[in-house]
Design a protein that fits this description.
The complex is a heterodimer of chains A (211) and B (91). Chain A is built from seven helices and two strands; from the N terminus they run ααββααααα. Chain A is 73% helix and 3% strand. Chain A has a single domain, classed as Arp2/3 complex 21 kDa subunit ARPC3 (Orthogonal Bundle), CATH 1.10.1760. A two-stranded antiparallel sheet of chain A has the order 1-2. In chain A, a hairpin with a 3-residue loop joins β1 and β2. Chain B has one domain. In chain B, 29% of the residues are buried. Classes of the chains: A mainly alpha (211), B mainly alpha (91). Chains A and B meet through α2, β1, β2, α4 and α6 of A and α1, α2 and α3 of B.
C-alpha cells in the first residue's frame, strides 16, 4: 500500500506530511520520558522483522500480490505510539533507501500504516481483547485486529486519493477494500503466527503497553 | 539483550532467503491503480533516487544475490537505527 510520488495532490501530501511529521516528533519526544533502555532492542528487532516480512510479496487472486504490513504486530509488541515510531522507521528506510513509496507520499504512508495501522490497530486489538476476554481467544483478537487495521489503512489510502481527486471514493474505496480484504487474510495469518510464537517463547514481553 | 538475537536471525533469513520467493505481481495498491487507470496519469518519476531501488543493489544487477544483500542491508539498518537514535539522544 506504499503510495508512490505523483499520486497525491500537493495540498494532500503537504498536509499529511505535516501531520505525520509532527506526530512523529511528538512521539519521539515523549519517548524520552519512558523507559527507553529496556525497549530499544525490542524496537530494533520489531522494525527489522517488519522490514524483512514486508519484502515477501505473496500472490493473491487475479495476478495481484500483497505483503505484510505488520502494524498490529508492532503495536502489540511495543505499544501503540512506539509501534507508530517503528512503522515510521521502516517506511522511512524503505522510501529513502529502497525507493518503495514516494518521498512526497511518505507522510501519507506514515499516516496510513503508522498512525492508522499501529495506533488505530492497537485500539481495535484492545476492543477485541475486551470483547473476547481471556487467553484462549488471544489468536482471534490478533487476527481480527490485523485484518481490520489493514482494511482501515486501505480505506484511508482511498480517502486520500479521493480528496485530491485522483480517483473517486465511490470507485476507489470498494476497489481498495476488496483487494485488501484478501491480503488481510495473509496479514492476519502472519500477525497471529508471529505473536503466538512470541507469546509462547517470551510471554513477559507481551504486556499491554499504553504508549 | 541476548534473547533478541534469534528474532534478528529470523529477520535476516526472511530478508535474505524467503525474499527470493516473493511474488512479482503488482501489489494490491498498484493493481487498483492499474485497473482504475489512475496509475498512468501520475508522474512515475520518483522525486529522489534511492541507493538501492526496488530492493536490489544496482551494481549487482537484479539477481538473487542482489536481492539478498539488499534485504540484509535493510534489516541491519532497521535494527541498528533505534540504537543509534538512543545513543545520540542520551548525550
Amino acid at each position: 500500500m506504499h503510495i508512490p510520488d505523483g499520486f497525491l495532490g500537493a495540498k494532500t501530501w503537504v498536509g499529511l506530511s505535516v501531520i505525520s511529521g509532527g506526530l512523529l516528533l511528538l512521539a519521539l519526544k515523549r519517548f524520552k520520558t519512558f523507559d527507553l533502555e529496556h525497549r530499544v532492542p525490542l524496537i530494533g528487532v520489531t522494525a527489522a522483522f517488519i522490514f524483512a516480512a514486508q519484502m515477501i510479496n505473496f500472490p493473491v487472486a487475479g495476478g495481484t500480490s500483497g505483503h505484510f504490513m505488520g502494524a498490529v504486530l508492532a503495536c502489540v509488541l511495543v505499544g501503540p505510539w512506539t509501534g507508530f515510531i517503528v512503522m515510521s522507521l521502516v517506511l522511512i528506510v524503505q522510501c529513502l533507501i529502497f525507493q518503495d513509496g514516494g518521498l512526497t507520499a511518505l507522510g501519507a504512508n506514515i499516516f496510513n500504516m503508522g498512525l492508522i495501522g499501529s495506533v488505530g490497530g492497537f485500539y481495535i486489538y484492545f476492543f477485541f481483547r475486551l470483547l473476547l476476554w481471556g487467553d484462549r481467544t488471544r489468536p482471534v483478537a490478533y487476527a481480527l485486529a490485523a485484518w481490520f487495521s489493514l482494511m482501515l489503512a486501505a480505506a484511508c489510502c482511498a480517502l486520500e486519493l479521493a480528496i485530491c481527486g485522483t480517483v473517486d471514493l465511490s470507485v476507489g474505496l470498494p476497489a481498495m477494500l476488496g483487494v485488501h480484504a484478501v491480503i488481510g487474510i495473509g496479514e492476519a495469518a502472519i500477525t497471529t503466527a508471529a505473536l503466538m510464537a512470541i507469546w509462547k517463547a517470551r510471554p513477559e514481553i507481551m504486556n499491554m503497553r499504553k504508549y | 539483550m541476548r534473547s533478541f538475537w534469534p528474532f534478528l536471525i529470523i529477520s535476516l533469513i526472511l530478508a535474505a532467503m524467503l525474499s527470493q520467493f516473493a511474488s512479482s505481481y503488482p501489489d494490491g495498491f498498484e493493481k487498483v491503480a492499474e485497473r482504475l487507470g489512475f496509475g498512468g496519469t501520475a508522474s512515475p518519476e520518483p522525486v529522489i533516487s534511492s541507493p538501492l531501488p526496488n530492493y536490489v543493489i544496482p551494481a549487482l544487477g537484479t539477481g538473487r544475490l542482489s536481492t539478498s544483500l539488499a534485504g540484509i542491508i535493510g534489516v541491519l539498518i532497521c535494527f541498528f537505527l533505534p540504537f543509534g537514535f538512543y545513543l545520540w539522544r542520551r548525550k
